[in-house]
Amino acid sequence: MKQLFSILTVILTAIYSHGQDYRSPALWQDEIVIDGSSTEWQQPFKLHNTSAGVSFSIANDSSYLYLCFETKEPLYVVKMLRASWYLQLSSKERRRRFNASIAFNSMYIELEPKHDYVEKKEKKGPTFKNWLDDYRLESNTYTVQGLKHYQKEALTLGDTTHNLIRVRLDYNEEKAVYEIAIPLNELMPAAQIEWNEKMKLKVFIDALDAPPEKSKLSVGTGGFQSIGRQGRQPIPPSTTPQEEIKPKKLEGVTKSCLYYKANFSHEFYLVPDKK
Predict the structure, then answer these.
(1) pTM of the model
(2) Which of 193, 200, 241, 272 could be disulfide-bonded to 266 (CB atoms 3.0-4.6 Å)?
(3) CA 104, CA 5: separation in Å to the nearest integer?
(4) Model confidence at 248: pLDDT above 80
(5) What is the end-to-end Cα distance of the chain in Å, rounded?
(6) Phi and psi (nearest 5°) for 108?
(7) Across the strands, what pairs with 60?
(8) C-alpha–C-alpha distance, residues 223 and 250, integer Å
């Protein structure tokens, strides 16, 4: 009986430990300048989602939560800009519970002829820069919901002076980069911020309307949940959080990726200064 009990204890411990593996620590980082350049971040990024074509990193200091998303593949950039995407941050910790979102507007982008080279691999050009410049001029707002001072409000992309939330989109070494800084006290009362705070990030990227011979596909499963402190909106279906998964090679990416929705989630926790 004692031997059986010991075996069960080992099995349960192993199961519990395995269940904790996907929750990763954020990176402690001194204050990051939100300028659309990821050079201040620890490289290479260790978090990836192949269905979305996105690499990302999560960091914090004593005052801010930082998020950075990168994508090198032009087709995935087109989908994010033209179909729109949003992220959700949440915590179920008692007394520090929150559910906030940031949604980026969509903008019409001509698919031809700017990125035909993605499939033919014949030429290169300032595709990212042109697209992002147009996006900043024509669709330069994003909507924040569920934060302390922003219940539901449209803010200007790139305004890192007047906004409490700082967001910047730019082109950096053949990558599209989204940088985001959120004050921790916008998520929870400052006096109740604790390190090892468990949080969840969910990301949802919509799909373009497919040609008649295709149908809009969805990667992942899920449903509807409330966003913010008011109302209900559809939130991204989530897949199992994944850490340090190497992205698949993107050489075979074709236009079909434009016509499916991509979503993923990742659990993490805040870390204290190591000093």
Answers:
(1) 0.74
(2) 241
(3) 53
(4) no
(5) 48
(6) -70, 130
(7) 28, 65
(8) 29
pLDDT over 60 (residue 228) = no
Range of lowest pLDDT (124-138, 157-171, 238-252): 238-252
Residue 82 amino acid letter: R
Which token pair is 50? 């192949």
**Cis bond upstream, residue 113 (ω within 30):** yes
- For 158-175, the DSSP string reads T--SS-SSEEEEEE-SS-
Place of tokens 């190591």: 274
Q: Is the bond preceding residue 44 a cis peptide, omega within 30 degrees?
A: yes
- Residue of 228, 201, 233 lying closest to 88 (CA atoms): 201
**How many other CB atoms sit within 10 Å of the CB of residue 75?**
19
Q: Is 265 in a helix, a strand, or coil? A: strand
Strand partners, 260: 217
pLDDT tops 60 at residue 145: yes
Count, residues in the chain: 275
Structure token digits, residue 11 = 């099995």
Where along the chain do its domains lie?
Answer: 26-269
Can you give the three-state secondary structure of 79-110, one letter per residue?
Answer: HHHHHCEEEEEEECCCCCCEEEEEEECCCCCC
Residue type, 252: G
Three-state DSSP at 10 gives: helix
Cα–Cα separations (whole angstroms), residue 70 to 91, 110, 236, 239: 24, 22, 19, 19
